[in-house]
Amino acid sequence: MLDIKFIRDNAELVQEGAKKKHIDFDIKKLLEVDDKRKALSQQLEEKRAKQNQVNTEVPKVDSDKRTQLIKEMQLLKEEMQKLEEQLKEVIIEWQKLMVAVPNIPDMSVPEGEDDSTNLEIKSWPVSASGGEKTKFSFTPKNHTELMLDLDMADFDRGTKVAGFRGYFLKNDGALLSYAIWQHALNHFLAKDFTPMIVPSLIRRESLIGSGYLPQGEEDLYRTQDGEYLSGTAEVATMAYYMDEILDKKDLPKKFLSFSPCFRREAGAHGKDVKGLIRVHEFYKLEQVILCEASHEESVKQHEFLHRNTEEFIESLKIPYRTVINCAGDLGLGQVKKYDIELWVPLEKKYREIGSTSYFHDFQTRRLGIRYKDEDPSASSGQGKMKFAHSLNSTAIPTPRILVSLIENFQQIDGSIIIPEVLRPYIGGREKISKN
RNA sequence: GGAAGUGUGGCUGAGUGGUCGAAAGCGCCGCUCUCGAAAAGCGGUAGCUCCGCAAGGGGCUCGGAGGUUCGAAUCCUCCCACUUCCGCCA
Fold first, then answer.
1. Known catalytic residues of A?
2. Nucleotides on strand B with an atom closer than 7 A to protein CB?
3. Distance in angstroms, CA of A41 to C1' of B72?
4. Spelled out in words, what is the top-level CATH class assigned to the domain A115-432?
5. Which candidate, A318, A354, A327, places its Cα nearest to that of A339?
6. What ipTM was reported for this prediction?
7. Dihedral of the CA atoms A39, A41, A43, A45 (nearest 10)?
8. pTM
9. Residues A314-340: tens digit of each pLDDT
10. In this predicted model, what pLDDT tens digit does every residue of A56-79 receive, in sequence order?
């Protein structure tokens, strides 16, 4: 959510931002509704002032006078009730529009409609012709085939038990996942993150707060009690401080949150139906930061978060590239987003495994996460309340990361070389093979 | 699932129809005292919002949403969360 005052003062900018994101939003409509809202509430406030004034007199005057005043107030009350009804309707419309106002993309975000125009800014490892990719002297297999051959996963029984897109990880498939989590914990916690295991079964409010609802209803599973299954630990982690006032000296707060994640993948029915790329249920370590309300700080933390993820992938030695997402590929609240994409040898292209975005105060305004800022110009020591800034970044999604790992490190005999950094967590073994 | 209770400012906690945006304490900020600190004393200290250049003034907020009333933190209804007891399950 943006500040209505900011929207009023920068209507054109907000409208252009929506256009750049290819989001259909009519700012004029919002301003009209806001004019109505302001006019009605002013009228109402005048009447309330009158009422309050009389209210203090009532107990002080004699009974004749009191009867007369009460009669007057009865009339005033009727007028107020009419105004209140009108105002209520306007506010409902106003709120509906307000939560739909997209945040403004950063200047550095390229134009474009969808992920096809995302802009590559880096590829790794570096070679003369750009990013170096994995080379094979044989025809590589896909991860599904490799995992089945090595008894690392079971998709048939996955769908039998769990339905479409269901899967089991077993043997080295399971162990490799644990190893990745362990390595990831060590990697990220070295940078002063607070480790968290957060709820996936969460209330609607939390999802509205992070900006996933109301517009993303069809992507989420909902229980018969009205809770939702979260698609990312970001939501619970962000909502952790909902309606709280933080101490400025504790900022930035950095969290590494783990949770199961659930996605309906509505509208993705034909896509990636085999294997572990697109599943309904997975696990993810997520980085979340709450920081001071300054653009510079957001940018700094954004680079920091993304670089963390890059370093993690580099430690696994999987070829990747980083892209800046174009405006059309940004979510409602995102100001700027980097995707990290890993090399998929069979498809001969990079595929996204995670992203890092910042939001300014879009999320924290909805969630009510504030801190008291010191005002250097005031000697009184009184600070202003500010909404914190928020950022988040995929640290590591499992099992999706297994796909790249297995396909890139497969050998001609169907075995898989285990990245060195993972070996301590998987019995010191160098490879996964049939025997 | 059943029963009872609780939800008030940064925190603890008083307040059961008008004088309550709210006692008191803690914390925090400023000042006095001190070489300095502690202690003590004095003063200040909620947020949001509207009008205004400002000074200042108005409105809203006591878990949330409704209702009763001229008037609600206080009474009523529903919801949410927490606590305790019972039951059930791990």
1. 263, 278, 352, 355, 400
2. 10, 18-19, 28-30, 47-51, 58-60, 66, 70-71
3. 21
4. alpha beta
5. A354
6. 0.83
7. -150
8. 0.90
9. 999 999 999 999 999 999 999 999 999
10. 888 778 888 888 888 888 889 888
